[in-house]
Design goal:
Layout (H helix, E strand, L loop, with lengths): L23 H4 L17 E6 L10 H8 L6 E8 L4 H13 L3 E11 L1 H7 L3 E4 L4 E4 L10 H23 L5 H8 L4 E4 H20 L9 H6 L5
Parallel strand pairs: 1-2, 2-3, 3-4, 3-5
Antiparallel strand pairs: 5-6
Length: 230
C-alpha cells in the first residue's frame, strides 16, 4: 500500500499561542494600531409551509420566534398555499419577516388569497411557480358589541388594514386597483400576470432606490432664523 508523507513548514506563531506585547520591541515589531473582532455565523436554511387557513396567533409562536432569532447568514423560505386567515396573526408574521436579519424568500406553491397575498409580497425575494393563483380583496370578519363600539372598531380596523395593505400592495398594483379593492372589488391573477407585475415592481423599486435623497424643504420659521442681523 502506498503511503504519503506530508511536509509542512512550521507556522511563525502557533494559532493557540499569544505573543506577549512586551516582546514587540525586542523583536523589532510594533503592536497593531487597531483592535480586531470577528463574528461567525452558521448558515441555516429554514422552510415553513403554510398550507391551510391562518388561525390564532398562539399557533404561530414557534414560527415567529424562529424568524425573529434568525441570523444574517440564514435564509428562511415561507411556502404558501393558503386561502388567507386572521389579520392580527398575519400582521405579527409580517412584522417578524420585515424585522428579521435573515433573507426571507416567499414561495407561491398554489394559491395565496386575501391575507396570503400580503404574506407573499412581504418577502425579500418572491418565487412564483406555474399554475398558481392570487386573489386580492378587502378584509372580512365579524364584530360584536354596542352600536357605537362597532362603528369605532370598524373605522379603526379599516384604517389598520388600508395602511398595511397599501404599503405592501403598491407598486405591485396601481393606486386605482388598490382603491377598487378597498371599495369591495376582488382582483384575481395567475402566475403569468403575477410574474409580470413582480418584474415591473422590482424595476420601480430599483429606480426609487437610485434616486438621491431630497433635502427637506425649510419652513418659513427656519428661513427667518437664518437672517443675519447687521
Amino acid at each position: 500500500m502506498a503511503s504519503q508523507t506530508t511536509f509542512a513548514k512550521p507556522s511563525k506563531l502557533d494559532e493557540d499561542e499569544e505573543l506577549d506585547p512586551r516582546a514587540f520591541p525586542m523583536l523589532g515589531m510594533k503592536p497593531k494600531p487597531y483592535a480586531q473582532y470577528e463574528q461567525s455565523y452558521s448558515a441555516s436554511q429554514i422552510h415553513f409551509y403554510i398550507s391551510e387557513g391562518i388561525g390564532e396567533p398562539k399557533e404561530y409562536v414557534d414560527m415567529i420566534h424562529r424568524i425573529n432569532i434568525a441570523t444574517p447568514a440564514d435564509v428562511i423560505y415561507i411556502h404558501l398555499n393558503t386561502p388567507g386567515g386572521q389579520l392580527d396573526t398575519g400582521v405579527q408574521i409580517i412584522n417578524a419577516m420585515q424585522n428579521s436579519q435573515a433573507k426571507i424568500v416567499t414561495v407561491l406553491e398554489s394559491m395565496a388569497h386575501s391575507l396570503g397575498t400580503l404574506l407573499f409580497l412581504a418577502g425579500d425575494e418572491m418565487v412564483v411557480n406555474d399554475n398558481c393563483m392570487m386573489m386580492f380583496h378587502n378584509f372580512n370578519g365579524g364584530m360584536f358589541g354596542k352600536g357605537n363600539e362597532l362603528t369605532s372598531q370598524l373605522d379603526a380596523t379599516v384604517k389598520w388594514f388600508n395602511t398595511l395593505a397599501k404599503k405592501i400592495y403598491i407598486p405591485f398594483m396601481s393606486e386605482d386597483e388598490f382603491n377598487r379593492i378597498s371599495r369591495g372589488e376582488d382582483l384575481w391573477m395567475q402566475s403569468q400576470e403575477i410574474r409580470k407585475r413582480l418584474d415591473r415592481m422590482m424595476k420601480i423599486l430599483a429606480e426609487e432606490a437610485e434616486k438621491p435623497a431630497r433635502k427637506p424643504r425649510k419652513k418659513k420659521a427656519d428661513v427667518d432664523e437664518e437672517v443675519v442681523e447687521e
